[in-house]
Specification:
Length: 122
Amino acid sequence: MADRTLRGMRLGSQSMQSEEGVEFADRQRARYRTEDGETFDVIFSADAELPDTWESPKSGREGVLLAPDGTPIDIAVGEIKAARTHWDMLLERRTRDELEELLQERLELLRARRGGGERLGA
């Protein structure tokens, strides 16, 4: 065993693959600017839709997409829908009068059970 020596590579990761025959995907560079004037570039796929805002990798502040001439792109603010609550969904199924009637029926039932000596949890 001492006659043989182990030959290998250095410690660490070193790829044995080459870039021969590899075609890279088309890319586009998008430039963003934060409120304090910091500009940074982000690389996207050529067919990707560019987001209007992006977080700066250095400062963490949100940057706005810049047009090729360096001016910020106007962000179109769409209609923001309010989150539907349980009450909203309930009102879609029943009218307020129907809900009042159901509430009175349930309260009468509970009062009758309490008056008859039954417990609520039973």
